[in-house]
Write a structure and sequence with these properties.
Blueprint (H helix, E strand, L loop, with lengths): L6 H18 L7 H6 L8 H25 L1 H21 L10 H28 L6
Helix pairs in contact: 1-5, 3-4, 3-5, 4-5
Length: 136
């Protein structure tokens, strides 16, 4: 297992968080929530839906537990503050238009995945900055 933070390691963790978040819900019809709640497939493939739902819950527990253990509520609040400022700046500069369908949902999903990736990677950052190792 790697003992330092690399760009590819963070990218891998971020992509995992993004796949989990976007696989659960996104503004398109291609997501777990839409599939489970679709009237056309309501009584079909229930064991598969259950299994995928259980895997998603396991993924969220892993990411959220690591995030809360490493950066806590204060770190999550600071990350939300930072990303809120970034989003506000992008809106002010005209890069984001929240009036377009689904834009706000996409922004929230990407921010959530990024915070989850930061949380699961933070122990590596803390070790680089302070030389201290987290143990739980």
């Amino acid at each position: 297992m790697a003992t330092k933070l690399t760009a590819s390691g963070f990218l891998f963790r971020w992509m995992g968080a993004l796949a989990l978040v976007l696989g659960t819900y996104n503004p398109t019809p291609y997501n777990f929530v839409a599939w489970v709640t679709d009237d056309a497939t309501q009584g079909e493939q229930i064991p598969l839906k259950f299994l995928l739902g259980a895997l998603m819950i396991i993924g969220y527990v892993i990411y959220f537990r690591a995030t809360f253990e490493s950066i806590g509520f204060i770190g999550i609040g600071l990350a939300l503050l930072f990303f809120g400022g970034v989003v506000w700046l992008l809106i002010d500069w005209g890069f984001l238009n929240l009036e377009e369908y689904g834009t706000l949902a996409w922004v929230i999903l990407f921010v959530l995945a990024t915070i989850m990736a930061i949380g699961i990677s933070w122990s590596f950052v803390r070790r680089m900055l302070s030389g201290q190792v987290d143990q739980t």
